[in-house]
């Protein structure tokens, strides 16, 4: 079977969800990961590849990944190939394997950037998380936050995903973050609460060079409250009335 690649665009925000393409291993011209299969696919229309060479993927990807100028092929848990379209990325860097399961890398394109997280479980999933996701201590969840004035990141917003044995699923996505500079996830508090922070633009005079020493405002987001971001330093108690 071939899974459709989905890119949902809302107000200039791009979220890449689900696998680009996956077929049974028996249909591959070679074993998964099949770069030959991916190269036979059509790239997104009207996209001119801006690179003369393929991205350099690290040696520790070799057992599960292959790539060409246009595609990154990932061998999935079910024996299929997940094809990640690289055609409109100018550059890719910080390729990494996260735990024993996920792959990820930073990308940049024409006035755009993001982070691609790849889950080879099941038939494979590709998610543009905007920034590198932060995983909970027990590995049950991951979260990401990314916001820019231009709104040209791959994913712009705040999201929390649950991790299952054969898939991942969003439990919360918010693309209407308060207009603050340098949103970041500071840490998880167990599996059900996040500590975040950001800086008001007025505090740095709208000068990003002042961010490094700026005082940060602190927020929490908890599953108890539906992952709504609220001002404060303390996570709500599980037994709160």
TrEMBL record:
Signal sequence bounds: 1-27
Keyword annotations: Signal
Protein name: Uncharacterized protein
């Amino acid at each position: 079977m071939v899974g459709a690649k989905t890119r949902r665009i809302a107000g200039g925000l791009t979220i890449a969800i689900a696998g680009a393409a996956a077929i049974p291993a028996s249909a591959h011209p070679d074993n998964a990961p099949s770069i030959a299969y991916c190269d036979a696919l059509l790239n997104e229309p009207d996209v001119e590849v801006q690179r003369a060479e393929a991205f350099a993927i690290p040696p520790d990807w070799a057992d599960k990944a292959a790539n060409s100028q246009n595609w990154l092929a990932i061998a999935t848990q079910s024996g299929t190939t997940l094809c990640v379209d690289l055609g409109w990325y100018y550059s890719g860097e910080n390729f990494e394997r996260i735990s024993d399961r996920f792959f990820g890398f930073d990308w940049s394109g024409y006035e755009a950037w993001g982070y691609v997280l790849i889950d080879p479980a099941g038939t494979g999933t590709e998610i543009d998380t905007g920034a590198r996701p932060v995983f909970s201590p027990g590995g049950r969840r991951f979260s990401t936050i990314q916001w820019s004035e231009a709104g040209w990141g791959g994913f712009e917003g705040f999201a929390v995903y649950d991790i299952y044995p054969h898939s991942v699923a969003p439990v919360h996505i918010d693309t209407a973050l308060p207009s603050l500079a340098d949103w970041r996830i500071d840490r998880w508090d167990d599996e059900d609460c996040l500590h975040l922070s950001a800086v008001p633009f007025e505090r740095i005079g709208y000068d990003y060079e002042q961010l490094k020493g700026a005082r940060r405002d602190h927020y929490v987001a908890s599953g108890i409250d539906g992952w709504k971001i609220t001002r404060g330093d303390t996570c709500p108690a599980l037994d709160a009335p």
